[in-house]
């Protein structure tokens, strides 16, 4: 049978099939239709019932697309500026960011109406799979007898308990001198600070911890580290003990004891600086200016998913997260355990800063740092002269916090 004959025959049979109410009569008519057309029986039922077309058309079936290319393109632009969060985090970040955009109200409304799964589906083509696993640096222990081991889960109800770790910017070669990143993450809120230090020495690590403490909007109550010599030494131990700050350490070769800071080592360090070797001490100060602004931007405008429960059923571990993700600043304010001047400072930072301007400043500073690194590498190889003063005249974003300023001074100015 030709297609035109099949269509005509089908229209006739549809009318007869619709008029029949008995199961036996319909079954006999269906047998006849299957024999004549050669269709599979279940498919023939759908054709006669009117739910399946006999011949296809070029028209797209189903509901029309709700989000066109303009919405998806703008969503991708925001996703890149937001440092490529997942759909659940990005849905909670959009209300914070769109208030600083000049987009049309209709476009903002459509962006805000998108669900987390829709965001992931629209961005699927733009996502690139990255490395799944990274080996952390290891070092020998120093004064283990003076620092107790903390191996249990964190159960804290106030801000100030932190995990710290270091990241090597060695480019795969641990020989020689190079820059390390010192990372500190607060457990209750997820507030994260990163500072660059030279060679991970005991004195340099202590100075980095002092800079981090000055930038945090809460009082430091505890520091948990791995068994590296940069943390287990008399310099840092004496400084923490003199300030009444408790120091603990993880079990050797158990990196999951420091899961919080290990995750931040990826999102706050590697995603920004990568795995290249940073082997010039002249990069330390520019990197600290960049990292100060980067961490402030992350803490104010980048939401984090908060785990509220965890249980094990057989071999499966079931985790539940809060329905709405919040920024570390929002989580810190809502905990109610920080001083009033710190809350004023956080509110002033949210009011004065713009995430788009901060991100643009970060990109400019990062580009200048890579340019300086290339010049330093070229000078080392004897390719071209070094012009370090030109970089020192580089003006970072005015939104970057001034180095050396304490939190109380910033709170006083904001108030």
Automatic annotation (TrEMBL):
InterPro entries, per database record: Integrase_cat-core, RNaseH-like_sf, RNaseH_sf
Pfam families: rve
Stretches assigned to the Integrase catalytic domain: 147-336
PROSITE patterns listed in its UniProt record: INTEGRASE (PS50994)
Gene3D superfamilies, sorted: Ribonuclease H-like superfamily/Ribonuclease H
Protein name, as recorded: Transposase family protein
Organism this protein belongs to: Luteolibacter flavescens
């Amino acid at each position: 049978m030709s297609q035109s004959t099949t269509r005509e025959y089908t229209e006739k049979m549809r009318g007869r099939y619709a008029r029949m109410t008995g199961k036996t009569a319909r079954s006999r008519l269906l047998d006849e239709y299957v024999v004549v057309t050669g269709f599979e029986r279940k498919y023939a039922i759908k054709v006669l019932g009117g739910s399946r077309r006999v011949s296809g058309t070029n028209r797209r079936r189903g509901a029309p697309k709700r989000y066109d290319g303009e919405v998806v393109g703008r969503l991708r632009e925001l996703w890149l500026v937001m440092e490529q969060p997942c759909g659940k985090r990005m849905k909670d970040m959009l209300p914070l960011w769109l208030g600083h955009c000049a987009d049309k109200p209709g476009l903002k409304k459509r962006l805000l109406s998108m669900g987390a799964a829709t965001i992931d589906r629209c961005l699927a083509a733009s996502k690139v799979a990255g490395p799944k696993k990274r080996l952390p640096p290891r070092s020998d222990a120093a004064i283990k007898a003076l620092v107790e081991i903390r191996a249990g889960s964190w159960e804290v109800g106030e801000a100030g308990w932190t995990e710290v770790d270091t990241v090597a910017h060695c480019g795969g070669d641990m020989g020689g001198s190079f820059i390390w990143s010192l990372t500190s993450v607060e457990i209750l809120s997820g507030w994260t600070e990163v500072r660059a230090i030279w060679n991970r020495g005991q004195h340099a690590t202590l100075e980095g911890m002092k800079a981090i403490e000055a930038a945090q909007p809460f009082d430091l109550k505890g520091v948990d580290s791995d068994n590296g010599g940069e943390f287990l030494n008399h310099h840092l131990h004496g400084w923490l003990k003199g300030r009444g700050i408790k120091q603990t350490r993880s079990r050797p070769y158990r990196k999951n004891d420091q899961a919080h800071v290990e995750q931040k080592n990826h999102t706050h360090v590697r995603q920004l600086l990568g795995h290249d070797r940073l082997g010039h001490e002249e990069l330390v100060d520019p990197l600290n200016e960049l990292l100060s602004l980067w961490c402030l931007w992350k803490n104010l405008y980048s939401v984090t998913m908060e785990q509220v429960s965890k249980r094990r059923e057989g071999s499966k571990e079931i985790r539940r997260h809060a329905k709405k993700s919040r920024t570390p600043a929002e989580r810190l304010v809502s905990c109610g355990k920080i001083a009033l001047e710190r809350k004023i400072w956080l509110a002033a930072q949210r009011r004065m800063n713009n995430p788009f301007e901060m991100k643009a400043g970060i990109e400019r500073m990062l580009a200048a740092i890579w340019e300086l690194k290339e010049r330093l590498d070229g000078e080392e190889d004897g390719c071209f002269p070094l012009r370090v003063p030109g970089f020192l005249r580089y003006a970072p974003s005015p939104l970057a916090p001034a180095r050396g300023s304490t939190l109380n001074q910033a709170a006083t100015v904001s108030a």
